[in-house]
Amino acid sequence: MGKIRLTRRERIKYLSQDPKITEVINSLAARYKVPKSKEINKQIDTVVALARKFNEEVVKPAYKQIDLEVSKDNDYLCWDFIKKANEWGFYTLFIPKMFGGTGMNLVGMYPFVEEIASVCVGLANVIGVHYLGFATLCASWNIRVMNEICREVKQGEKTGNPCLISLAITEPGAGTDVEETMLIDKGKIETIARKVEGGYIVNGNKVFISNGHVSTWHMLICYADKTKPSENTLMLAVKNGMKGFSFGHHEKKMGQKACVASELIFEECFVPDKYVAADSHVLPENAAKSAKEVAQTMIDYVVSSTRAGVAAFAIGAARGAYETALDYARKKTVNGTLLINHQWAQSMLAEMYKNVNMGRAAYMESAYANAMHGLVKTLFLKPIYYWELYFPSWYFSMFSPVFNLKIMTWLFRWMNFEKYPQESAEIQSGWASLTKFGCTDIGIINSRMALELMGIDGCRHDIGAEKYYRDAKLLQIYEGTNQLNRMNLFKNLVGRNMPEVEVF
Amino acid sequence: MSTQTQAIVQGFKEELQAMSDLAKNFASKELFGKTEVNDHYPFGELFTDTINNAGDIGFYAVNLPAEYDGIGMGDSALASILEKISMADASMAGIIFTNAAAIEIINQASLNTNCEAVYKMLCAKEALPLAFSSFTGIGEMEMPVADKKGKISGRINFLVLGGISKYAVVPAADSTQGNKISYYLLDLNEKGIEKSEPVYSLGLHASPGVDIFLEDVPATLIGKAGEGEKYFHAMQSHLSVGAAAISLGILKGSFMEALQYTKDRFQGGRQIIDWSEVRMLLANMAIEALVGQSALASVCNDLENGTAGWEKTARAVAIHLSDMACRATVDGVQLLGGNGYMKDYGQEKRMRDAGQAHCLLGMVPVRKMDLIEMIIKESQ
């Protein structure tokens, strides 16, 4: 090898410039930062194979009919599917063993949901949005409440009564506003929690809540002070049957019909103190982070892990559209020639294939960014990782009363709020937004291309292509609109070292 | 321009304006405020009264010759009606378009053949609207076969209005002409015809298609045997103007709803129209609407004046406008956020309708290949 004209000082200088290599090749960095990569890959293989089997046996036979049933009757709920997914253990598959789950690593969740979404985005969302609720619960770092609710999910698996978790955050007057503390204080927030003896009384409405009607627990984001919600954010765990809590209407959606979007109604709803998962005042007054920063950190923890999940749904839709178009092109004759033998069709299919694979590479980058910098970073710390990997579930069941100790919650909050580096927040949040809007745009592009390639046959419900188009559109909207995600990326990765930049 | 010509042109403009106003009033009275209910078909009722009222006004007779109880107006008048109707509900426009496409096949055939018998059948009560495969090019179609006696057997997928119309204009591979295509007028109540349930599709729900299965069904030849491909391509040129108008109407409707919503909705403490990124999305939609409007007006002008090459322009405008409508309606949903995705608002239907209207007159890539084929032939 020839002489490398680079001093040590120069190496440090050049590598400290943007873009930092370790931030843009997260999967490469993960090979030495995240323990036992081989085992992680093995688990990813397992969950992908499991998802494919589930698709063959459960999703493919049912998804079109479910979509039709909801089209006929908007109040239809796909309980058969929900129970099937429960039977297969999907609601605990990615919950850590320490909380009663199967403990598959969370990096594997993304290719898993891509698989299901490649057949039906709506049904993938039924499973995926439960993990949105789970991620919200985890972002509280309230170990006692996490342990209790997760073990109920496990119990639901054993009894055959699914116990799902939803996230209740969006309000009629506040969609984008609730995802950014910079916006929320100017927003029209209506879900207010009033402190009373023994708990809180909540009044307000939440809308567009995915899986609302089919969930047992609802992680409710509400506010103790309407005039300064960013500094007075509360996360309450609300259970079906709590006094004052009820369900409203089902939204009439264009697509992803299998996953209900619900209205949740809180009328003098009493939530006891033990189900206050978090509030933005969790840290002491002299802490490094203010209440507003803690609230933003909680939001970032949630959306940074789930936005990559939405990206995975989108690549699933993109892939499903491509596979449907490919299958069609192999059989259809146009002007006397098989469609797949028209060069322009081959070019379109190649473009779609490229889109899927580039999108997958992107969302896996975000998954690894999350593993090193985000919500699941704690699970990849070597002592915790090996503890999870090698100890059996019964051990954790015996051990779990320890999670009720206040010191456990204090410790995890100290690690994940107080000691959480700003640089990590920027990487995980920026990457999540990048893949969210990048991949969801791909979902629309590929599903449109499939329709163009297939003509009116692509528009028929019975052939299956048009459904990807309808389903893919919602992915550009929820988990923060693509416009908000562009701003978030700009804030975290583009404009971060530019003092002259103003965002929002 | 002479005074006489000026008077003719003025008269024509006034007639076009009258048709446009008629369509706008019809949309206002029959369609606005009812799109969600009407779009629920086939799981809800079909808006049969509205379909009949459109016939009473004359929307199915726009391109039918005056001597056969038609209005005898051309593609510009049709485009004008389709644009206004599509701004309210593109399904109704789909019905008018389908009927007009079927009639245009007959009109093209009548240029070199006596089609009086066929036209007279259309004068019967409830003969209109006609059913037609308005989304399928003949190169893509699963073609039924006509035997020596003119009886048709085979399958036709997605025959628009096949479930509700009395007659359909259908192509078949004519065994007397070496399997070249001929067009036929088919009585859909004849024995030997089996119809599927309405095919549930992406958009234009209330302009439904059915699959039909034919076994030795007698039909009336339209025009000359074996000339079907010629009639189809000529119809495709004429109705490209109509297809463009539908896309434009959908696009405009989407833009106008997005514009109003962004003024009414507040996020971050201000009207969302005050966020510059929102304005940029609206600007892109506005540009597409204005460019589309200009292109459609220009091609109507070329068509009415018989400008050489109007057929190519019409095809290009139809393809490009439908692309723009697909792109813009995706943003039209986006600008309304979560509300845009819900049936309570009009945007999700427009996105679906634009997606389906993109397929009018055949697969877009095939139409592009046909267009470049025309240009290459002319350049040689």
Topology:
The complex is a heterodimer of chains A (504) and B (380).
Chain A: H1 8-15, H2 21-24, H3 26-33, H4 37-72, H5 79-87, H6 109-117, H7 121-139, H8 143-159, E1 165-168, H9 181-184, E2 192-196, E3 199-210, E4 217-223, E5 233-239, E6 245-250, E7 261-272, E8 276-279, H10 291-329, E9 333-334, E10 337-338, H11 343-373, H12 382-390, H13 393-399, H14 406-418, H15 422-454, H16 456-459, H17 465-475, H18 482-494
Parallel strand pairs in A: 1-4
Antiparallel strand pairs in A: 2-3, 3-7, 4-5, 5-8, 6-7, 9-10
Chain B: H1 3-31, H2 35-39, H3 48-57, H4 75-88, H5 90-109, H6 116-122, E1 145-146, E2 151-160, E3 167-174, E4 180-187, E5 193-195, E6 209-218, E7 220-222, H7 228-264, E8 266-267, E9 270-271, H8 276-305, H9 310-334, H10 337-340, H11 347-357, H12 364-379
Parallel strand pairs in B: 1-3
Antiparallel strand pairs in B: 1-2, 2-6, 3-4, 4-7, 5-6, 8-9
Helix pairs in contact in B: 1-4, 4-5, 4-7, 5-7, 7-8, 7-9, 7-11, 8-9, 9-11, 9-12
